[in-house]
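Why should sequence recovery work at all? Because a backbone constrains its sequence more than one might expect. Tight turns favour small or flexible residues, buried strands favour hydrophobic ones, and helices have their own preferences. The token representation captures these environments compactly. In the example below, the structure is given first.
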């Protein structure tokens, strides 16, 4: 069982919310003093902080309580009124500081460092039956990574792949362990507070995966008293929590004791009989059903609409713009681009009609 985490500092694209805990105070009197100071601080904050200031100062033990304003966060800004997948930066082929640093790497280190999956069939995986004996990564996401490396460094193989679990995608970017993550990662407002996204490169949605013999019919009452597996920090996990809170999912559905670090762990657990169903992106679920003929997708269609994007650091504007330019060209390239990759890797599991998976033409935000 994990120990509870201390409250984390959370950074939004244009504003910050800082939360700190109060520890080590002894006695009721001391706590009362702290509470009084905290209340006074909050009441004085609007008078002492000018618009646009990102933080305030205080003595040890005083909590910083700066709220992100709606105008600072595009996901909260009613003037923009755009879905998160339409809030990326416009394409550009220019080199900024981020790209210059990548290009400045010397020798064997002159590579693009990318976080990927190595266990998602046809997305990012190792095939033991290929010519390399499973020593190389391949799949739809991997094709995109090679294209990005080609356009930025002039070599499609100038890539250092780092396999990361689902719940480590954002930490890997924030810590600088990777330049970007290309790993079936859904664009949403919560994640946009922590990382920057490219324009969407794939459309999907959540679906239920369960044994063919199961009476489960979808994300409905048939999940009562069932154990449903999701990956930590996944949109599937967030969606099930929201549906259960709203009364759209039975309260008796167990979605808390069945959370795993990596999405593929759910397929293993269902094979072992430890869970009754899995909820994940339909694109991934279809690939898992292809791996295991004893399971199938339940329900006629996805019950959400989501878009995958390439994730990067919040301040890597030049890299975001370059990736967006690469995606524009990638989708136009009928011979060796998006469509060719779809036909090779995904048509067998998702069908030959790629229009269902192709995202709409991107929209961009302006940023000076």
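From this structural description, the recovered sequence reads:
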């Amino acid at each position: 069982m994990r120990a509870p985490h201390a409250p984390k500092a959370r950074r939004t694209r244009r504003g910050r919310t800082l939360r700190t805990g109060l520890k080590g105070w002894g006695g009721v009197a001391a706590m009362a003093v702290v509470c009084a100071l905290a209340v006074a601080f909050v009441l004085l904050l609007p008078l002492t902080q000018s618009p646009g200031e990102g933080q305030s100062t205080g003595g040890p033990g005083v909590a910083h309580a700066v709220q992100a304003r709606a105008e600072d966060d595009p996901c909260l800004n009613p003037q923009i009124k755009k879905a998160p997948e339409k809030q990326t930066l416009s394409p550009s082929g220019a080199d900024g500081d981020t790209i210059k640093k990548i290009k400045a790497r010397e020798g064997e280190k002159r590579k693009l460092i990318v976080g990927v999956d190595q266990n998602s069939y046809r997305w990012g995986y190792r095939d033991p039956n290929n010519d390399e004996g499973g020593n190389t990564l391949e799949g739809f996401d991997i094709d995109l990574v090679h294209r990005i490396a080609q356009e930025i460094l002039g070599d499609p193989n100038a890539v250092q792949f780092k396999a990361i679990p689902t719940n480590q995608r954002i930490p890997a970017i924030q810590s600088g362990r990777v330049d970007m993550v290309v790993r079936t990662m859904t664009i949403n407002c919560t994640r946009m507070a922590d990382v920057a996204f490219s324009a969407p490169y794939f459309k999907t949605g959540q679906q239920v995966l369960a044994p063919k013999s199961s009476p489960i019919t979808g994300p409905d009452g048939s999940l009562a008293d069932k154990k449903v597996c999701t990956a930590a920090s996944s949109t599937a996990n967030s969606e099930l929590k929201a549906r259960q809170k709203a009364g759209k999912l039975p309260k008796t559905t167990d979605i808390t004791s069945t959370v795993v670090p990596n999405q593929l762990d759910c397929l293993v657990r269902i094979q072992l009989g430890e869970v009754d169903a899995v909820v994940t992106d339909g694109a991934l679920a279809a690939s898992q059903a292809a791996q295991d003929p004893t399971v199938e997708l339940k329900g006629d269609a996805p019950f959400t609409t989501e878009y995958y994007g390439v994730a990067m650091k919040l301040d890597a504007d030049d890299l975001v713009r370059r990736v967006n330019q690469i995606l524009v060209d990638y989708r136009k390239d009928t011979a060796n681009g998006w469509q060719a990759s779809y036909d090779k890797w995904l048509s067998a599991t998702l069908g030959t009609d790629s229009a269902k998976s192709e995202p709409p033409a991107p929209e961009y935000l302006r940023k000076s």
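A few observations help interpret the result. The chain has a mean pLDDT of 82.
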